[in-house]
Amino acid sequence: MDWLNQIPDFLLILARVSCFFITVPVFMMRTIPAPFKIGLSFFLAVIVFISVEPSHAPLAFSGGYIVLLIKESLVGLGLGFIASILFYAIQLAGTLIDLQAGFSMGAVFDPQSGTNANLTGRLKNVLATLFLLSMNGHHLLLQGVLESYRWIPVEALVPAFTDGRISTFMLETFKNSFVIAFLLAAPIVFTLFLVDLVLGIIGKTSPQINLMVVGFSLKIGVHFLVLLIALPSFFLLLNTLFSEMVESLSQMIRIMGASS
What we know:
Blueprint: H1 2-5, H2 7-23, H3 34-51, H4 63-101, E1 108-110, E2 115-117, H5 119-134, H6 137-151, H7 165-205, H8 211-229, H9 231-257
Antiparallel strand pairs: 1-2
Helix pairs in contact: 2-3, 2-4, 4-5, 4-7, 4-9, 6-9, 7-8, 7-9
Function: Role in flagellar biosynthesis.
Keywords: Bacterial flagellum, Cell membrane, Cell projection, Cilium, Flagellum, Membrane, Transmembrane, Transmembrane helix
Pfam families: Bac_export_1
């Protein structure tokens, strides 16, 4: 039967799509049921399998086929990870804010990432996820992995894995994520720094005031006040962040497929 001969090609496509969902924002969250991820990966792989031309991959379980299977897995993981790097900037911004506001000792377990998350970082992460979904950003991410098959054929290797272009691009993306994280955290962190400065001056001039009680309550109030005032600028930066995320995903696809 002819369809049995096409199963190895389908498995290669499924490897890239399923690995993409392991690391890509929104879909990688643990709150999304595993059967949903598996089913979505399977049906997207079916769509790609129908859309692309049949590949000339080696026979199943041969040495060349195993190499292609590893390559497809790395491509899927790389595309998802390059998109999630910038998304992690939101969590980093919340961590910096909570460290300055005194909330870092109240970190709670985040079931989405499986790690301890600060309160402000958790709030900003939820707002960013809702904002991404409202902009149909998840559609752009799915379109990115589907578009990758046009640039990176299943049967072709990726020389960019060994010539340093991917690592250089990832370092550049890391740098951009830190810059965006500092921009997201700057209004609240700078304001709380001024509050600490004022409290330090008050402590020197009026030693009888209990700054441990007054200062903590004051910093909490200022934190939430500035967070509310800076909320419009937060969504403006989110728009820039998601545009950068989509552009980084496109650049990663072009880098991987440049010498295919």
